[in-house]
Amino acid sequence: MKRDTICVQGGYTPGNGEPRQIPIVQSTTFKYATSEEMGKLFDLEASGYFYTRLQNPTNDYVAAKIAELEGGTAAMLTSSGQAANFFSMFNICGAGDHLVASASIYGGTYNLLSVTMKRMGIEVTFVDPDAPAEELDKAFRPNTKLLFGETIANPALTVLDIEKFAETAHRHGVPLIVDNTFATPVNCRPFEWGADIVTHSTTKYMDGHGAGVGGAIVDSGKFDWMRYADKYPGLCTPDESYHGVTYVKKFGNGGAFITKCTAQLMRDLGSIQSPQNAFLLNLGLESLHVRMARHCENGQAAAEFLAAHPKVSYVNYCGLPTDRYHALAKKYLPNGSCGVVSFGLAGGRQAAEIFMKHLKLAAIETHVADARTCCLNPASSTHRQMNEEQLREAGVPPELVRMSCGIENKDDLIADLAQALDAV
Ligand SMILES: *Cc1c(COP(=O)(O)O)cnc(C)c1O
Known about the structure:
The chain has 424 residues and is an alpha/beta fold. It has 2 domains: 274 residues, 3-Layer(aba) Sandwich (Aspartate Aminotransferase, domain 2); 134 residues, Aspartate Aminotransferase, domain 1 (Alpha-Beta Complex). The protein has 16 helices and 12 strands. A 7-stranded mixed beta sheet has the order 1-7-6-5-4-2-3, with helices on both faces. The longest helix is centred in the middle third of the chain and has 23 residues. It binds pyridoxal-5'-phosphate.
């Protein structure tokens, strides 16, 4: 099936007389007639539901749709994008290990890696994603367990050279994990370019209506864990907390990663998505393909308008032929990237503040990737504790505005930008 059709119909095929829409299974527990039957579930001998912290049918329908969309073999939902990224990494690394990550990633992920995972004894080396492969090679160590990057980085809008990253990861015998939040599988499927694991903050375009925080992890099933069995003992040797099951042997390359992540990390850390939120997420997914096209159309129109405006000093949007990432976008994002555009006001911080004050249709929010257009001037809001120099170092200069184009009519969006720029 084409991705458009999967968005609408994937993951759930009701039988005769069953609900057309996915049922919300609002139940913490599931009933069994005998202890033996339930025991088989606990031993991972049979598949089924027993407690929603581990698995719930509503979540599984939605996860199956996301797996199909990405072209993966298995997927799971998490309570947030942060949980998805943490679980995807912690599933294969622990104290004493090391990982390599693109330096151009979401601030929350940067913090997760550089502060919290560091406290857990996991070292990270950040690399410039635009560096040549030979440069990236230098970051790897014998105890490196994975490489991480974002298809389109939030907020820098860097486009990842996924093939270069995948080849680099595989040269060092580790998987590539790609956070595909901004592109969504509608615009890019990282597995087709060699990525091994994909993560999402479903809070963004997948939900698309600002209704629920959530995340997802998808496995391509392509990484050959057994080939590097000494590096990934958690997947390739018996798990004593599950009666000696060896995940790769029992569930194959296609199922091992997600089964282990569910059986161990969800069990112990418990960051489930509620079935209610999974239901809302599925409503968002049903129109993802239609919305992404409009987000991209509006993003392109806004970027072109801004690039031609005398009060705007620069625009970052990979859909512009002048953009630094245009060539990579043509390769990886031929149908469009996303609706997020960033730009600088020629008049600096003060101009940015006046511009923001005069917006009527675009709301001021920290959120992005929503049906409603929103804008943010990081220097006067999220990053206001930083001085001028720190702002520039962090890649959010004081004149920078990040705009997330919604799915309204583009003429209205541009009229709003025009009148706010007139006020500057
Ligand atoms: C928002 C975001 C996250 C974090 O997701 P939450 O759902 O807010 O926890 C991770 N990665 C990217 C690229 C994001 O945009």
